[in-house]
Design goal:
Layout: H1 5-10, H2 12-25, E1 39-41, E2 69-71
């Protein structure tokens, strides 16, 4: 839990400290991207290029068709130094 965003939720003083560290130095827990979107998929429906292939009969109510992979797209842009100075 030491590197978790839950720590910021449970301890308001820690959030204030991390916020000040982010504003002054551009580092800390607030630098990490926060997931806003997730894509659920079934592993056997992805081809070699990670594209979805649907069979002729794909009933979402069938328990065999439940997704088993969570794809979390996050930014891969390196942070810029001196953003706030």
């Amino acid at each position: 839990m030491a590197d978790s965003l839950v720590r910021l939720e449970k301890r308001p003083l820690t959030f204030i400290r991390e916020f000040l560290e982010y504003m002054m130095h551009g580092t800390g827990l607030l630098l990490a991207p926060v997931l806003e979107l997730c894509i659920l998929a079934k592993a056997d429906r992805l081809d070699a290029d990670s594209k979805v292939t649907l069979p002729a009969h794909s009933d979402a109510r069938d328990p065999a068709n439940l997704p088993d992979i969570e794809i979390m797209p996050v930014s891969n842009v390196p942070p810029q130094k001196n953003t706030f100075s």
